[in-house]
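Help!! Second protein's tokens look totally different from the first
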Amino acid sequence: MLRSVLLFLLATFVQSMVDHEESEIILTAHGYSMDDVENRVVIPIQDGRIPPLPCVMANAGTHQHGETFTKNNFHYQCKNGTAEVVACIADDQSVIQLGRTFVRNGMKHKCNVVGDSVTYEQEAMCFDNGIHYSIGDTFRNGSFRLTCGQNGIIIEGCYLQNSGEYLMAGESRIVGRQRHECEVLGDGRVRYQVKVIGCMREGQHYNIAQVFTDKHVRYQCMNDGSLDVLGE
């Protein structure tokens, strides 16, 4: 699973106004010269009154006061010469309101307001048992401790039987007469198993190397948990 993050900052569009004998106002897009005829608008002044100003944005054209428009992942409204972000727009044209988070098709979309700027973020998520998880989230599924990574779900470790404690993948631990193993099998697979230390026969536990007699037969407990028959 690929993770993509898009970050866009709201640029403050500065109005450049020039007064030519009090007869006109010239508005230019932020960063452009007043001589750039494609990114400016000239507003005549009548009777000394300044009308509501339009917004001039590079590569987005000119928009009248009160008009809304979209550029890249932002939806704007023109307010007397200033283009204000009113929402974020996802790549599938979904609308995310300011300050909200929106999840669709395994992707999380965030429209954050930070001071005078707005950021839009798009982040891949993990999905398991009907729940979405953000990258970095850790959660439990059965005996396994899982983490949502940039490329999907990672098996981080195994939970001990009937416990909230866990082993990291590849780790083992002896608890009482049991060995708990979180074994890495390859190809990203992990197996959790519990092994009795020593040998069991007829419900009786025997230590490794211990010799005992059962029904006139002598046994010895081997390292692998098997019983070696020594004879009668």
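Here's the second one for comparison:
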Amino acid sequence: MGGLLYTTLAAALPLLHFTAAQTNTAAGGTWPTDLVGTWSTKSNKTLTGPGFYDPINERLIEPSRTGISYSFTSDGWYEEAYYRAISNPQNPNCPSGIMQWQHGNWYMASNGSLILTPIAVDGRQLLSQPCTYKQGIYTRYNQSELMDRYAVYTDPYHNIPRLDIYKFDGSPMNPMYLAYSPPQMLPTSTLNPTTASSTAGSKSTSTSSSKAKAKRGEFEVPINWKAKQQDGKEVVHYINADRLWWIGLAMTGLGGLLYLGPRRMGIQL
């Protein structure tokens, strides 16, 4: 009976969270205000904003540590930054790294799921495979996301706001912690329009609009921001291979310890 009661209460917690959170109305859903801010995983080194993606010089900026960051505004805009290392157990000297950035619109549906729709032309991805390619592969990135549910609460250990997001299949993402409020973001407008008519998103048409952007922690991009790009040349960047090697070595060592440790103690996995 006790186990059943515990399971029932645990399942009800997300529902209690959603009904208690203050929300703003959106077309087709709501914008819960408890999500507003910039959230980052434990390393707190991967963060959204101009420190991760530089649209003026068209480049992704490598953080000192891997991590994930999401930012949400109270009027339906979001931004995300991913930096992940991919270990290679067969050849620890050849790890890979991937950086991804995108932004767009978000809302919470009536069933509590989060719908994230990026601005298709703005997303960027940098894949680095030092043992395969001398330079990283820099491409556009566009991936809509469906999050099954989320929970915001005060972490009992760190005593700061914590965000738990569950993917479309119910599996949890790494927990994130509030880094900035208001959020630290690039402008929510389209940064890389393919044509003059394709520009979408919020535009600053008055002083009040500019102040609203500043309050959200956004940064204005000059009209001639593309002037520094060289037409006709492919933009190719790379991720620090030495840093990836150490990360890959650490991940391989940890995997070996987790695998061999229990066996040495006579525990069958």
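Reply: Different proteins will give different token patterns, so don't panic. The chain has three helices and 14 strands.
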